[in-house]
Design goal:
The chain is of the alpha+beta class. The protein has 3 helices and 7 strands.
Length: about 120
């Protein structure tokens, strides 16, 4: 299972709703959600991206994030599209919840969960 921090994901959900577009789950250079249409940065990347915990190539070592992404979502790169008004996203948007993603070869399940407690 992969966890997405609600603090980051809420910004992506709000951007998708404001732009009346879908939310994209991408697995390529990391695993992340972004709005289908949104503000970009000069180098062409999106400004608002919510990476899965442990799958951010800007923070996590390549072998670590690549192995985690492969174990959870398989070896192929992909993009899946979601309605930002789906129940799981609505709950994350209106609460302090994070989002947990689990996958089988044929289904992706999104489940709001309480945020992880900070470690000391």
């Amino acid at each position: 299972m992969l966890r997405f921090k609600g603090t980051e994901l809420r910004l992506v959900i709000a951007e998708a709703i404001a732009n009346d577009c879908q939310i994209v789950l991408a697995k390529d250079d990391g695993v992340y959600f972004l709005a289908e249409q949104g503000e970009g940065l000069p180098e062409g990347r999106r400004k608002l991206i919510a990476y899965a915990v442990g799958c951010n190539p800007g923070v996590d070592a390549f072998d670590d994030w690549w192995n985690l992404a492969r174990a959870e979502l398989g070896g192929d790169d992909f993009a899946e599209y979601f309605d930002p008004k789906a129940e799981a996203f609505e709950q994350v948007l209106s609460s302090g919840d994070d989002l947990e993603l689990s996958a089988t070869p044929t289904h992706i399940t999104l489940q709001p969960i309480k945020p992880a407690r900070p470690t000391r």
